[in-house]
Every structure is written in C-alpha cells, then in structure tokens.
Amino acid sequence: xxxxxxxxxxxxxxxxxxxxxxxxxxxxxxxxxxxxxxxxxxxxxxxxxxxxxxxxxxxxxxxxxxxxxxxxxxx
Length: 75
Description:
Pfam families: Phage_integrase
Order of helices and strands: HHHHH
InterPro entries: DNA_brk_join_enz, Integrase-like_cat_sf, Integrase_catalytic
Low-confidence stretches: none
Domain Tyr recombinase: 4-61
Keywords: DNA recombination
Protein name: Tyr recombinase domain-containing protein
C-alpha cells in the first residue's frame, strides 16, 4: 500500500517518480538522522541491523569516520 501511495504522491508534487521509492525514502530518512546526529547506533536500531558493519555499508560511509562520530554520542 505504501508503494502505491508513493507512486501517486511523487509525481503529484512535481518530482521524478523513478528517483523515489519506498526503499530510497527509508534510506534517505536514516541518512538524514545520521547526518544530523552522527549517532550510528540509533540508525542501526532504526534499521533493525544486528551488525554495525551492515549499517555502515547501508549508509555508504567509511567505518572509521562513522565510529569516530558515534563515539561522541551517548545513548
């Protein structure tokens, strides 16, 4: 159902439908959270990943940079 909503909504607001989908929007949201907070652990929990490496690969960030940023954030 979410996919149908996206299929209708995206062109109605003047965006290119091929650039937006349910998965890309999910990835965009967590990427924005990571960018604003640097909290890699929070992103890992939101995505339901069991391994930090999976989250790092999903975001497409360098592991050392990600760990440096996340060390400054306490949960």
